[in-house]
């Protein structure tokens, strides 16, 4: 299942979404659904285990340099977010936790990456901020 208003990222010739599907044990599990524009085929990729069972509304898919990235917010009304990057496209074992953002304010939304590596985000008052993962400021 993919909701049309969820985030998407164009990586490696494919549009990628966070989606969820039935889990073998019961319930649902998150995954990445990709549509390859060249071959016009769908494929799916598993998320890191710590991300796969989060509520799907807490996940965003983004582009980091040339790689697929997933922003995982702790919860709705959140103050922290961890960012995972798939270093090698379609290689599930290449998921790597890039860093975590922990702020003393409520995050509204993370918006992606700037060319300098900073993460633009908004707070709950809709102020636009830029987080530098190197200095953690």
Describe this structure in words.
This protein has one helix at 49-52, and strands spanning 8-11, 14-22, 28-36, 41-46, 59-64, 67-73, 80-86, 95-102, 107-110, 119-123, 128-131. It has 137 residues and is mainly β. It has one domain. The strands form three sheets. It has a four-stranded antiparallel sheet with strand order 1-2-3-4. Strands 5-6-7-8 form a four-stranded antiparallel sheet, with no helix packed on it. Strands 9-10-11 form a three-stranded antiparallel sheet, with no helix packed on it. The longest helix has 4 residues, at 49-52.
Q: Number of helical runs?
A: 1
Compute the number of strand runs.
11
Strand arrangement in the largest pleated sheet: 1-2-3-4
Sheet with most strands: 4 strands, antiparallel
Number of domains as seen in the coordinates: 1
Tertiary shape: globular
* Helix content range: under 10%
First-residue to last-residue Cα separation: 36 Å
Briefly note the structural class of the backbone: mainly beta
Order of helices and strands: EEEEHEEEEEEE
- Report the radius of gyration as a whole number of Å: 15 Å
Mean pLDDT: 83
Strand content: over 45%
Low-confidence stretches: none
Write the layout of secondary structure elements.
Layout: E1 8-11, E2 14-22, E3 28-36, E4 41-46, H1 49-52, E5 59-64, E6 67-73, E7 80-86, E8 95-102, E9 107-110, E10 119-123, E11 128-131
Protein name: F-box protein CPR1
Summary tags:
mainly beta, 137 residues, four-stranded antiparallel β-sheet, 1 helix, 50% strand, F-box protein CPR1, globular
């Amino acid at each position: 299942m993919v909701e049309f208003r969820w985030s998407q990222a164009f990586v490696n010739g494919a549009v990628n979404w966070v989606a969820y599907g039935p889990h073998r044990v019961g319930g649902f599990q998150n995954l990445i659904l990709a549509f390859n524009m060249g071959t016009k085929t769908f494929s799916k990729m598993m998320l890191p285990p710590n991300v796969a069972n989060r509520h799907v509304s807490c996940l965003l898919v983004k582009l980091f340099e040339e790689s697929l990235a997933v922003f995982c917010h702790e919860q709705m009304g959140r103050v922290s977010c961890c960012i995972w990057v798939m270093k090698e496209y379609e290689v599930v074992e290449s998921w790597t936790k890039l860093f975590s953002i922990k702020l003393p304010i409520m995050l509204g939304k993370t918006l992606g990456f700037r060319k300098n590596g900073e993460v633009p985000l908004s707070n709950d008052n809709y102020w636009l901020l830029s987080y530098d993962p190197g200095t953690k400021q």
